[in-house]
Design brief:
The protein is α/β, with parallel strands linked by helices and 361 residues long. 33% of the residues lie in helices and 23% in strands. It has twelve helices and 14 strands. Strands 2-3-1-4-7-6-5 form a seven-stranded mixed sheet. Strands 10-9-8-11-12-14-13 form a seven-stranded mixed sheet, sandwiched between helices. The structure holds S-adenosylmethionine. The site of S-adenosylmethionine has 21 residues, from helix 9. It is found in: Cytoplasm.
Length: 361
């Protein structure tokens, strides 16, 4: 048994499968996917060396539908097994040379209701498992950030998958899920989407520079203000464009100017907008075109926006939307740019995209 495990939102397995199939083919690897509806992960079967190559060369950050991925080493049956830590050790020992000494261990589950009930067990089990793996010298005595990460994923209480990933191509969040608390005064739940997007798309070491107090932002389709709330929280001055009403609490901050205009026609008077965000529910191609035109005309430096997903063939559609945006920026722009897209934990039937011109190095 060898291949790659990719975790995704339940219901998006076929999109995650289509994506890994496509990306692996680009790397010259021809494996096949196995998945089941709503199991929240996909197995991509290929040779062990090919799986390792994917784990090294295919950047997780470039995958839209996969939240986390690891090289699959073994599947373990645990029904009736008393010493589960020893069973995991036994399953890992024949594969030790693939990861040598692991720097840390992650015990997790796919994001399904059934498996999520095991989260508490996973946290508890990681204590004896760590000890067992350390004793056997499979795991370092203290976390080593540069060594591979060992994964033990409980699909259910009787079945676990083991594997490893490389630290430089991994998410810091268990299961690839960034859990955020809904702020008490947040005007809508979608506030969490923009909070997550800022954290996923802007690396921590660049945040102070790229997200600063006093920056100017435009929020298209802003009402009632969940996204504006995140910009205000980061001490930005916001032009909130929407015919609908904005939350009073936001207007009282003095940082928000509510503009009742069509978001497709509005443009800022001055070209000093640092962040454009857009959550208008519209045809993805139309939103993509609007966002690229803001960048191309120098109306903003960075943009974060949602693209609504179709009911079917979501990967193929996403690939096309992103290709259109890329082509526009390549054809009409004169600078290198960055495009990132992710089906975030707080997204449902949409993905979130980030665009920016890259600064001169
Ligand atoms: C999903 S809601 C936005 C929610 C908001 N991001 C939040 O967190 O509270 C979409 C908003 O887009 C607005 N909208 C749709 N089409 C628009 C347009 N052409 N111009 C301006 N606003 C538009 C709607 O009025 C609606 O308030």
């Amino acid at each position: 048994m060898s291949g790659i495990i990719l975790l995704c939102r339940a219901g998006f397995e076929s999109d995650c499968a289509a994506e890994i199939q496509d990306k692996a083919t680009e790397l010259g690897i021809y494996g096949y996917c196995q998945t089941q509806p709503d199991q929240a992960y996909v197995t991509y079967h290929c040779q062990a060396e090919e799986a390792d190559h994917i784990a090294r060369k295919l950047a997780l950050k470039e995958l839209v539908f996969a939240r986390e991925m690891f090289v699959l080493l073994s599947a373990i049956k645990l029904a009736g097994v008393e010493d589960r830590a020893s069973a995991v050790l036994e399953a890992l020992l024949p594969h030790q040379e693939s990861f040598a000494l692991a720097g840390d261990l992650r015990v997790e589950t796919p994001d399904t209701n059934e498996a999520n009930q095991l989260s508490k067990f996973c946290r508890k089990f990681s204590v004896p498992l760590r000890q067992t793996l350390r004793k056997a010298e499979l795991l370092s005595n203290k976390p080593l950030a540069k060594r591979p990460l060992l994964h033990v994923m409980f699909v259910n209480s009787a079945h676990a998958l083991t594997g490893y990933s490389y630290s430089y191509n991994q998410t810091p969040h268990v299961g690839g899920i960034l859990r955020l608390k809904m702020p008490k005064d947040g005007p809508s739940r979608s506030t969490l989407k923009l909070d997550e997007a800022f954290q996923v798309f802007v690396p921590e070491h660049e945040r102070d520079k790229r997200i600063q107090a006093g920056m100017k932002a435009v929020d298209l389709g802003a009402a009632p203000g969940g996204w504006t709330y995140q910009l205000v929280r980061r001490d930005m001055m916001v032009q909130a464009v929407d015919n609908g009403p904005m939350a009073d609490s936001l207007m009282e901050t003095g940082q928000v100017q509510h503009i009742k205009e069509d978001g497709f026609k509005f443009r800022p008077k001055r070209k000093n907008i640092n962040w454009l965000v857009c959550d208008m529910v519209e045809k993805p191609a139309r939103v993509g075109e609007l966002m690229t035109s803001w960048l191309l005309e120098g109306d903003c430096q960075e943009a974060i926006f949602n693209l609504k997903l179709p009911m079917r063939q979501r990967y193929a559609a996403v690939k096309e939307y992103l290709a259109q945006i890329t082509e526009q920026l390549q054809t009409h722009g004169t600078k290198p740019f960055e495009i990132q897209a992710k089906h975030l934990y707080h997204d449902r039937e949409e993905i979130t995209v980030h665009l920016r011109w890259l600064p001169k190095s």
